[in-house]
């Protein structure tokens, strides 16, 4: 069937901010969808609140709405488009994750689809319900002869208890309609049951949980399937979880293809998968089905299905080269699989099942260190914040690559000291509980003599994988024991995935001091000519010619092995280093900049080469750059790719300043290896990163900075602190996202911090800064070409300095800064950029306190805010940066139109749209071992996973949107609870009065209440949680409160007061404001909502208006 | 698992290319036609598939031996391939059904294997150069390159090879239907796989498996509802006896179903030629379209020869047994994957509806055959 002709305009729903369980994989799929639909000549409108996505770039849709993803706003978009004469024909919601799917359901419920006669393509509502409603789904599976875990749907704790009496413990508790297993868990005891039961009921939008028989420890598999409108269906990929059932697939190490199934078992799984797909009735597109297999007798049961493109679909696409999202989009508009070409072979159709001649391993990346006290046990709720994928010609090779892609301290087996006091029993006992890094416990246990059988018994990990670890160990032993390493032994070691670093460690243990360093091993390896070959991901195991240069490295035993990197000599190459696995502090924003560089440089006539190992990203789409290398971002792996590219053509240079801290760390090593570097020089990078050198730069430029010092011991730290005065801010050097950063109010807590800060060494000292209280933080993105500086964005933070820039809301253009302030910011930024010899992007953070502008830090690289600045100002900074790094001047780019002809973000005219960035925090995902929540108080250490943007003509509505977009919709009526620190009481009177005038009922704790009463505000007093029953916490849980304003009391130590209130707020999803500035902003938002509601406008129209405003003012200026 | 125990081995192609690796399975030398198979599962089914007779199979899946050896999963009584070329052998198998390991089974049956080969480079070479003769020389057998190439060039070509005799049963045997028997089918064994009679039995069909030398008179002695032409190795151009028999079956209008080699036999019986594909279709992800329904099937395939249909795939061609259409064709390269007689109760497919290894998408063809026998029964 060819394409449907009755569709002209499609509205694509994105997935919103990056949250745990829903990361940039949906930017990847959404971007592909928009590309495809527009290539088909359809009009595409898009709604997505996440500015850091490629899909929300104005060129990817005809109308891009950066608005909250709710039924309410989607309807506004439909109306706005109709008003402009473009009625929406259909909505595509299956590529935007659970968010888009849930929104589709809401749209249907609210009658919006009918009202505007809009069709849902990809999956219809009944199909979604059949797939997502766990009970209906189970019934379907049983009907078609499949097997499922015994279970019952419950709507109350009473029903829950009754069910468990029948099933017995342990049981799995799963709320319906949540993503990434939010609110689900494994109950072993009746206490667990009570706790998880109520949490689960609360987490489910339909107040429904499923209580399910446990199949803990079974083998877990996933199939990625696709179906077209002619009922043709294929299995794109099979995935096997190394961690057995009980660990969420998102938190499991996984491998593709499945490695421990015979053809019979695999085909039975395939048959069942296809039956389920058809029975559920996924109209067209992709879906993901999970299976559990009993390792003892092979009993196979179906766990769940996601009737949409999922996290695993992105993995499957990168693992096979089969672009699931792109094809899903084509199927949605009527094409059938045989009509769509396989764009890797070009010759053959997409109607086939990819076959792999390599092994893919995915390893999750966690961030527990950021949530002290959080329970680190891996369960049925997803907790990882990112992942890395690797490709190798054997499991061992891929596994080694995946582990060293993590960028944690552990760069694979043996790369860190074994802790003292390991015992086999101890290790096995520890490994029995799934946690981040348990595989290292398993490796140590096996090394100390545990048998594969014992390790399997303890962990449930399939013996096949354990045998592979034993194999890797034996290879390591050979490396360690052989008197000297010859080419054959080295080749064998590399072939089983050992990094130069791992080899060095083993040689060191073997007493070979000459080969004790990574560099020495690499030097020997190169001398012996032991280099990797580069193979191609081609979907067909070489059966057909591949036209897409999607490569991975591999070591073959055969010295004469074949490498497939084809020569390319017409165009100079630029190699862009990506940012690796997502983690808090370094996420999609950096991938955005890398992708933009690839686009801009391709247009500028370069051959672009991307290196990255994050399967969720757009940068690892083989369409994004001319060549893609799916490789770890370690010095070793990157150097080998560069070498291969230098052989195949001329490398103009490597870009390390767009992918965040990951590639930046490599700058020095690459330069020493003689690699041509583009942009800010490694020395200039060090100048900004090294506090000492940077300090000198500031002093010589006479720029004020908070007094600071560095220390490598408590004694030193105390001296520094005494000298500059408390409160001080302490942190390790060379970090991103404020890792390990704390505000310290006295000597005691300073001593405590030093004792906790483990990796303090002379080359990694602690930094001690004077902490600026109540200062306004300002974030600046700027471009510098060596002689001119262009302000790309000046952002005023809503929360005061002390709350990490990544977690604090900010507004662009600044709303309280004067022209002079901004000119001062410009002046300072210029002297830092020019003084620091920046070529490309620069991010500076300032704090303004009583008229003094302090420089907090400068990062000579793309920042987290580049996409936000770019979208708010209509200037694509990362593209411009890439051009500057390859030799263009700002003047040239102004002339070209890539930058504004005159002025910059420092001279935005009145009438420029106001954009607010709000952070999204993952607190609701983390609980302490005892089940209580982790504290949500913001501080200098970044904890947010993503962000949203609210954009409008004025601050109020823009802020309101940013709140709605980040799942904290502001109430327009109801009850507000106020409890503020003494220091804030005075400043809070007016805001609260405003709320009362707007019709809110005010309740407060005694102290705050008295103060408000005296100011003539009617207040009801409410008990604090420790003052007995019916206290504020109960009221919050009972849903009697609609808004909470709670600024932390006291100055000292961990600011625990109010903890109960804040965690209750998170548990019940009530907006909780913890700063005065935040409260004022919220009230402006609420007023906007009450006064005139909020409308929507596309980014394109905002930017058009901005452009007019700019030309108007410059015109005025020139005649005036 | 240490390098000490690695015995060197070499894979030598007739065009002189040599790929080095490590010996596994039986030591010694073996010769055959080098072909690659792209299935990610089913190495055991492949090894025991008689169609792979005299072929040295290159597995493109990089990890082989993962699930060991599972007695129930063999498609014939013995390993049929001449040799096996792989990238990585699993140190130990993992499957609750495993009854042994792959290398042990190969040693027991004297099958020579080589591991550690850059199988992707090899596959890319075979893709362009085409399937060709090769030899595996393991351990002591490794000698001077020139000598090994010489030895390979002295072995017989696959074109012109008549192997049906080698693999066929010598004595007839019966595989009873599960439950009451609806029909009885004679299966001419040209290299039949165990899952074929099993697929019939599951559908209530009794299968009498007959030697490749069977004549029409043998068949007439039996009370049959249909005849099945199995898959098998070798060059269809040599299968004259089977072709002659098929012509008689067509004349007697006995319902006929052929697969793989059987498809080529029917083709010849209808008067078409056959030709050797450059590197054949060997994998379990091969898409074909059923021209009767337009449905796309993912099929298991293993053929180096194909029927030379004298017209465009959409045309209907007249033969002495009436009109014939292309029943199936490959979505990858358009190769004819099946024939349907419009005026005779006969059809055949080039792929493997019995799968094993591979997807079950085409299993419904057994029912299509049963329908043929049904109508025949009703009309007589
Ligand atoms: N019945 C069960 N017994 C044990 N573990 C289970 C069971 N059901 C699910 N799990 C585990 O919980 C994880 C999440 O469950 P799943 O149904 O996939 O929810 P989600 O929608 O979050 O993916 C699965 O990946 C699996 O490891
Ligand atoms: N001297 C200071 N006074 C007050 N707040 C500070 C000071 N230094 C840093 N901060 C706060 O800590 C946050 C993180 O510090 P920063 O230097 O930006 O580290 P990172 O490299 O993690 O961004 C900043 O966003 C700011 O809010
Ligand atoms: Mg799941
Ligand atoms: Mg910062």
Q: How would you characterize the overall build of this protein?
A:
The complex is a heterodimer of chains A (1120) and B (380). Chain A is 37% helix and 18% strand. The longest helix of chain A has 21 residues, at 1099-1119. The radius of gyration of chain A is 29 Å and the shape is globular. Chain B has ten helices and 20 strands. In chain B, 23% of the residues lie in helices and 33% in strands. Chain B is an alpha/beta fold and 380 residues long. In chain B, strands 10, 11, 12, 13, 14, 15, 16, 17, 18, 19 and 20 form an eleven-stranded mixed sheet that branches. A seven-stranded mixed beta barrel of chain B has the order 1-2-8-6-4-3-9. Chain B has a two-stranded parallel sheet with strand order 5-7. Chain B has helices at 43-47, 102-108, 119-129, 145-154, 164-167, 195-202, 216-221, 240-251, 261-269, 364-379; strands spanning 8-13, 18-25, 28-37, 55-59, 63-64, 83-85, 88-89, 112-115, 132-138, 173-175, 183-188, 205-210, 226-229, 256-259, 273-290, 296-308, 316-319, 322-330, 336-341, 346-349. Bound molecules: adenosine-5'-diphosphate (2 copies) and magnesium ion (2 copies). One adenosine-5'-diphosphate binds at residues 149, 172, 180-181, 212-216, 220, 245-249, 290, 303-304, 380 of chain A.
Write the topology of this structure.
The complex is a heterodimer of chains A (1120) and B (380).
Chain A: E1 9-13, H1 25-39, E2 43-47, E3 63-65, H2 71-83, E4 90-92, H3 97-109, H4 112-115, E5 119-121, H5 125-132, H6 134-143, E6 151-154, H7 157-167, E7 171-175, E8 185-187, H8 190-203, E9 209-213, E10 219-227, E11 233-241, E12 254-256, H9 263-280, E13 285-293, E14 300-306, H10 311-320, H11 324-332, E15 359-365, E16 386-392, H12 395-404, H13 424-431, H14 438-447, H15 452-459, H16 463-481, H17 487-495, H18 500-509, H19 518-527, E17 533-536, E18 550-554, E19 573-577, H20 588-603, E20 607-612, E21 627-630, H21 635-648, E22 651-655, H22 661-664, H23 667-672, H24 682-689, H25 691-700, E23 708-711, H26 714-724, E24 728-732, E25 742-744, H27 747-756, E26 766-770, E27 776-784, E28 789-800, E29 810-812, H28 819-835, E30 840-849, E31 852-859, H29 866-873, H30 877-885, H31 890-896, E32 914-920, E33 946-952, H32 955-965, E34 975-979, H33 982-997, E35 1001-1004, H34 1006-1014, E36 1019-1021, H35 1032-1037, E37 1043-1046, H36 1059-1068, E38 1072-1073, H37 1076-1092, H38 1099-1119
Chain B: E1 8-13, E2 18-25, E3 28-37, H1 43-47, E4 55-59, E5 63-64, E6 83-85, E7 88-89, H2 102-108, E8 112-115, H3 119-129, E9 132-138, H4 145-154, H5 164-167, E10 173-175, E11 183-188, H6 195-202, E12 205-210, H7 216-221, E13 226-229, H8 240-251, E14 256-259, H9 261-269, E15 273-290, E16 296-308, E17 316-319, E18 322-330, E19 336-341, E20 346-349, H10 364-379
Parallel strand pairs in B: 3-4, 4-6, 5-7, 6-8, 11-12, 11-13, 13-14, 14-20
Antiparallel strand pairs in B: 1-2, 1-9, 2-8, 3-9, 10-12, 15-16, 15-18, 17-18, 18-19, 19-20
Helix pairs in contact in B: 8-9
The site of one magnesium ion (MG) has 3 residues of chain A, from loops.
């Amino acid at each position: 069937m060819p394409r449907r002709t009755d569709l002209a305009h499609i509205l694509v729903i994105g997935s919103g901010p990056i949250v745990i369980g829903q990361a940039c994989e949906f930017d990847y799929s959404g971007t592909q969808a928009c590309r495809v639909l527009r290539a088909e000549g359809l009009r595409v409108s898009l709604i997505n609140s996440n500015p850091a996505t490629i899909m929300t770039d104005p060129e990817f849709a005809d109308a891009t709405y950066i608005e909250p993803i709710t039924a309410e706003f989607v309807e506004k978009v439909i109306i706005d488009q109709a008003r402009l004469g473009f009625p929406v024909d259909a909505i595509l919601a299956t590529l935007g994750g659970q968010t888009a799917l849930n929104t589709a359901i809401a749209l249907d419920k609210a009658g919006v689809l009918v009202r505007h006669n809009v069709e849902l393509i990809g999956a219809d509502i009944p199909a979604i319900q059949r797939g997502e409603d766990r009970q209906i789904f189970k019934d379907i599976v049983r009907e078609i002869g499949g097997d499922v875990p015994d279970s019952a749907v419950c709507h109350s704790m009473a029903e829950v208890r009754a069910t468990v009496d029948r099933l017995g413990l342990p049981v799995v508790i799963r709320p319906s309609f949540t993503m990434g297993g939010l609110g689900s868990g494994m109950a072993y005891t009746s206490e667990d049951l009570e706790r998880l039961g109520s949490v689960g009921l609360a987490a489910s939008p339909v107040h429904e949980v499923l209580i399910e028989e446990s199949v803990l420890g079974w083998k877990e598999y996933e199939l990625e399937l696709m179906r077209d409108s002619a009922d043709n269906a294929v299995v794109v990929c099979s995935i096997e979880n190394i961690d057995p059932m009980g660990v969420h697939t998102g938190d499991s190490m996984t491998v593709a293809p499945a490695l421990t199934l015979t053809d019979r078992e695999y085909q039975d799984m395939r048959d069942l998968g296809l039956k389920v797909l058809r029975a559920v009735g996924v109209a067209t597109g992709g879906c993901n089905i999970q299976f559990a297999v009993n390792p003892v007798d092979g009993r196979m049961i179906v766990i769940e299905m996601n009737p949409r493109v999922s996290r695993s679909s992105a993995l499957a696409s990168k693992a096979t080269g089969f672009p699931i999202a792109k094809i899903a989009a084509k199927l949605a508009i009527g094409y059938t699989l045989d009509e769509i070409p396989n764009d890797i072979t070009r010759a053959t159709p997409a109607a086939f099942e990819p076959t792999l001649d390599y092994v893919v391993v995915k390893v999750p990346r966690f961030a527990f260190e950021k949530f002290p006290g959080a329970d680190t046990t891996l369960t049925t709720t997803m907790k990882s914040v990112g992942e890395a994928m690797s490709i190798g010609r054997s499991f061992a090779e891929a596994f080694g690559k995946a582990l060293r892609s993590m960028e944690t301290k552990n760069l694979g087996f043996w790369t860190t000291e074994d802790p003292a006091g390991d015992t086999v029993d101890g290790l096995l006992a520890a490994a029995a509980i799934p946690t981040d890094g348990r595989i290292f416990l398993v490796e140590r246990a096996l090394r100390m003599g545990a048998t594969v059988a014992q390790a399997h018994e303890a962990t449930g990990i399939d013996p096949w994988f354990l045998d592979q670890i034993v194999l890797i160990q034996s290879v390591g032993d050979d490396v360690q024991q052989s008197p000297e390493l010859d080419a054959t032994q080295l080749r064998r070691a590399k072939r089983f995935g050992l990094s130069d670093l791992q080899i060095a460690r083993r040689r060191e243990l073997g007493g070979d001091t000459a080969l004790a360093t990574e560099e020495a091993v690499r030097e020997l390896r190169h001398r012996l000519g032991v280099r990797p070959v580069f193979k191609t991901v081609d979907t067909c195991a070489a059966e057909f010619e591949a036209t897409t240069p999607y490569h991975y490295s591999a070591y073959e035993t055969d010295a004469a092995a074949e490498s497939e990197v084809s020569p390319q000599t017409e165009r100079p190459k630029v190699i862009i280093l990506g940012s690796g696995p997502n983690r808090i502090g370094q996420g999609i924003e950096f991938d955005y900049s890398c992708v933009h560089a690839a686009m801009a440089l391709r247009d500028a006539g370069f051959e672009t080469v991307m290196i990255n190992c994050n399967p969720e990203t757009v940068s690892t789409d083989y369409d994004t750059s001319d060549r893609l290398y799916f490789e770890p971002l370690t010095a070793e792996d990157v150097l080998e790719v560069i070498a291969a590219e230098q052989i195949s053509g001329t490398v103009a240079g490597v870009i390390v300043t767009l992918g965040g801290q990951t590639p930046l760390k490599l700058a020095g090593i690459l330069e020493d290896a003689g690699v041509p570097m583009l942009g800010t020089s490694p020395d200039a990078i060090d100048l900004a990163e090294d506090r000492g050198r940077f300090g000198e730069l500031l002093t010589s430029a006479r720029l004020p900075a908070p007094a600071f010092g560095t220390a490598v011991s408590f004694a030193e730290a105390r001296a520094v602190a005494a000298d500059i005065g408390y409160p001080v801010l302490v942190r390790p050097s060379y970090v991103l996202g404020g890792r390990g950063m704390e505000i310290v109010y006295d000597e005691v807590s300073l001593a405590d911090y030093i004792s906790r800060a483990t990796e303090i060494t002379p080359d990694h000292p602690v930094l001690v800064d004077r902490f600026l209280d109540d200062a306004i933080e300002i974030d600046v993105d700027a471009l510098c070409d060596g002689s001119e500086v262009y302000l790309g964005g000046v952002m005023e933070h809503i929360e005061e300095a002390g709350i990490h820039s990544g977690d604090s809301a900010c507004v662009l253009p600044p709303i309280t800064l004067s022209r002079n302030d901004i000119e001062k910011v410009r002046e300072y930024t210029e002297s830092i950029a020019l003084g620091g010899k920046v070529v490309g992007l620069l991010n500076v953070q300032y704090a303004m306190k009583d008229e003094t502008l302090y420089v907090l830090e400068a990062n000579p690289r793309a920042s987290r805010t580049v996409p936000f600045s770019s979208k708010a100002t209509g200037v694509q900074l990362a593209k411009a940066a890439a051009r500057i790094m390859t030799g263009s001047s700002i003047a040239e780019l102004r002339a070209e139109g890539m930058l504004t002809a005159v002025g910059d973000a420092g001279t935005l005219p009145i009438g420029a749209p106001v954009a607010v960035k709000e952070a999204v925090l993952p607190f609701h995902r983390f609980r302490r071992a005892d089940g209580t929540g982790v504290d949500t108080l913001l501080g200098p250490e970044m904890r947010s996973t993503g962000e949203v943007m609210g954009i409008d003509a004025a601050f109020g509505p823009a802020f309101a949107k940013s709140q709605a977009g980040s799942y904290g919709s502001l109430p327009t009526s109801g009850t507000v609870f106020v409890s503020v620190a003494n220091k804030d009481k005075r400043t809070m009177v007016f805001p609260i009065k405003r709320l009362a005038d707007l019709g809110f009922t005010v309740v407060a704790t005694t102290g705050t209440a008295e103060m408000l009463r005296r100011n003539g505000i009617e207040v009801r007093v409410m008990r604090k949680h420790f003052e007995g029953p019916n206290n504020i916490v109960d009221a919050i849980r009972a849903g009697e409160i609609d808004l909470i304003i709670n600024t932390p009391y006291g100055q000292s130590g961990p600011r625990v007061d109010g903890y109960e209130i804040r965690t209750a707020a998170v548990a019940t999803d009530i907006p909780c404001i913890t700063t005065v500035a935040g409260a004022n902003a919220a009230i402006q938002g609420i007023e906007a909502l009450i006064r005139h509601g909020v409308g929507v406008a596309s980014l394109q129209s905002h930017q058009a208006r901005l452009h007019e405003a700019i030309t108007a003012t410059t015109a005025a200026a020139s005649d005036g | 698992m240490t390098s000490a125990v690695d015995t060197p081995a070499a894979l030598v192609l007739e065009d002189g290319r040599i790929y080095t690796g490590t010996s596994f399975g039986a030591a010694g030398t073996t010769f055959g036609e080098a072909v690659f198979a792209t299935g990610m599962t089913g190495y055991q089914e492949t090894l025991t598939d008689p169609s792979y007779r005299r072929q040295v199979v290159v597995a493109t899946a990089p990890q082989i031996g993962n699930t060991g050896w599972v007695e129930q999963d063999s498609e014939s009584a013995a390993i049929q391939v001449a040799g096996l070329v792989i990238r990585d052998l699993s140190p130990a198998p993992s499957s609750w059904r495993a009854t042994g390991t792959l290398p042990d089974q190969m040693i027991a049956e004297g099958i020579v294997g080589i591991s550690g080969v850059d199988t992707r480079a090899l596959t890319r070479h075979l893709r362009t150069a085409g399937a060709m003769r090769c030899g595996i020389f393991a351990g002591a057998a490794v000698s001077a390159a020139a000598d090994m190439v010489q030895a390979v060039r002295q072995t017989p070509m696959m074109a012109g090879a008549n192997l049906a005799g080698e693999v066929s049963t010598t004595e007839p045997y019966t595989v009873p239907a599960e439950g009451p028997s609806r029909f009885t089918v004679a299966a001419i064994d040209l290299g039949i796989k165990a899952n074929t009679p099993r697929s019939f039995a599951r559908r209530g069909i009794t299968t009498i498996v007959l030697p490749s030398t069977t004549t029409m008179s043998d068949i007439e002695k039996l009370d049959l509802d249909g005849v099945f032409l199995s898959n098998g190795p070798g060059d269809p151009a040599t299968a004259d006896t089977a072709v002659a028999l098929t012509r008689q079956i067509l004349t007697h209008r006995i319902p006929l179903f052929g697969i793989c080699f059987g498809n080529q036999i029917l083709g010849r019986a209808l008067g078409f030629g056959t030709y050797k594909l450059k590197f054949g279709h060997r994998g379990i992800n091969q898409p074909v379209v059923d021209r009767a329904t337009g449905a796309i099937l993912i099929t298991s395939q293993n053929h180096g020869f194909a029927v030379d249909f004298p017209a465009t795939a959409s045309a209907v061609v007249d033969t002495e047994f009436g009109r014939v259409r292309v029943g199936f064709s490959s979505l990858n390269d358009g190769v004819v994957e099946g024939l349907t007689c419009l005026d005779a109760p006969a059809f055949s497919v080039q792929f493997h509806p019995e799968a094993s290894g591979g997807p079950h998408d085409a299993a419904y063809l057994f029912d299509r055959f049963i329908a043929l026998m049904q109508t025949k029964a009703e009309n007589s």
